[in-house]
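tokens incoming
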């Protein structure tokens, strides 16, 4: 990588960090490109030399957050030999994200809300969410079903993903009333109840 490429990569990362801060604090619609540039310490031109506009910046931010999680999830899953061990590691990754970067959860909600008004954005959002569900479905498929009435891996993934997001939303609103650590037990309950983890 050349020095120019490295500088561009650093600029892009700084702009994404600034956009994350601004969007999480004020919402997508309320934030302008000049505000993001100012937060990052760059000119508006720097934003447009890296992104076509606010919409692409928002999409890149979502992809960074969700793509980074997928890579980390694959790493920790590879280190575990049992279904329960893999699930516990995945749950702990989610717990860490919600604890350390609650703004990432806020951004997912913000993007969902905004994308409902734009079919093209909604499709891209749905594709990224589907990739995450596919990773959870692969976890369910790694072990033989327990019993004849085990749920399809794809349906287990839907339930697990919805549960994790729901608990994160409630935790952010009420940290003491809804401790995010319960995600670990809840993920095991979902997989066990669906017949993809032995009792």
């Amino acid at each position: 990588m050349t020095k120019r490429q490295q500088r561009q990569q650093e600029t892009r990362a700084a702009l994404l960090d600034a956009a994350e801060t601004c969007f999480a604090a004020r919402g997508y619609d309320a934030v302008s490109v000049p505000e993001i540039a100012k937060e990052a310490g760059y000119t508006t031109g720097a934003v447009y030399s890296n992104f076509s506009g606010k919409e692409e910046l928002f999409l890149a931010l979502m992809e960074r957050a969700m793509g980074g999680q997928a890579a980390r999830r694959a790493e920790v899953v590879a280190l575990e030999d049992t279904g329960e061990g893999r699930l516990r590691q995945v749950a702990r990754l989610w717990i860490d994200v919600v604890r350390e970067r609650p703004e990432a959860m806020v951004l997912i909600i913000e993007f969902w809300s905004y994308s409902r008004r734009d079919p093209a954005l909604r499709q891209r959002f749905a594709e990224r969410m589907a990739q995450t569900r596919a990773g959870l479905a692969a976890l369910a498929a790694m072990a033989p079903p327990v019993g004849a009435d085990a749920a399809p891996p794809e349906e287990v993934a839907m339930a697990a993903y919805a549960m994790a997001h729901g608990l994160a939303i409630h935790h952010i609103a009420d940290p003491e009333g809804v401790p995010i650590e319960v995600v670990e037990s809840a993920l095991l309950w979902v997989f066990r109840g669906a017949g993809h983890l032995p009792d």
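note: DSSP finds nine helices and no strands in the chain.
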